[in-house]
Specification:
With 169 residues, the chain is mainly α. It has nine helices and two strands; from the N terminus they run αααβααβαααα.
């Protein structure tokens, strides 16, 4: 039997803290493969965008569409804290919500910002207010607030920490 497992956590530290079984680690770590985050391999962004666009075209039965150089530059400037999954979701969203054969930066930027992504990866002045509004609307339920913002729960948590947002009271 073969198993493939993935994590973004430091299993060595978890073993040291008694939060991960050492014997399980040695069963899984036969051939460890370390894949750096997308922000450290920006040369992969354009080929991944092309792959996601082609996959979308196959699924939808439509002709493949492309992104303008400016739209690609926007994606290259972003740090992608959600890595390849976040990139795939943004590409899928752009292809679903726009109809142009070539998606320009002007068309793409609003789609990109639906997930509250800011390129380059810096906070916008409105991001704090957007996050606070989503949290208040969802009764400070982080999972629901993250879903309403179109981001992962751990991304919401990181942004809250970065912006100094904590539940009042």
């Amino acid at each position: 039997m073969r198993a493939i497992a993935s994590t973004h956590r430091d299993l060595s530290a978890l073993i040291a803290d008694g939060k991960f079984r050492e014997d399980l680690y040695y069963r899984l770590a036969v051939i460890p493969v370390v894949v750096p985050p997308l922000r450290e391999r920006r040369e992969d962004i354009v080929p991944l965008v092309q792959h996601f666009a082609a996959a979308h075209a196959r699924r939808s039965g439509a002709e493949a569409r492309a992104f303008s150089p400016e739209a690609l530059a926007l994606m290259m400037a972003y740090d992608w804290p959600g890595n390849v999954r976040e990139l795939g979701n943004v590409v899928e969203r752009a292809l679903t919500l726009t109809t142009s054969p070539v998606i320009s930066a002007a068309e793409f930027a609003p789609v990109f910002s639906l997930g509250r992504a800011v390129a380059p990866a810096q906070s916008s002045p409105d991001e704090r207010e957007d996050i606070l509004a989503a949290l208040e609307h969802c009764g400070w339920n982080h999972t629901k607030a993250a879903e309403s913002l179109g981001i992962a729960r751990n991304t919401l948590w990181r942004r809250m920490k970065h912006l100094g947002i904590s539940r009042p009271g």
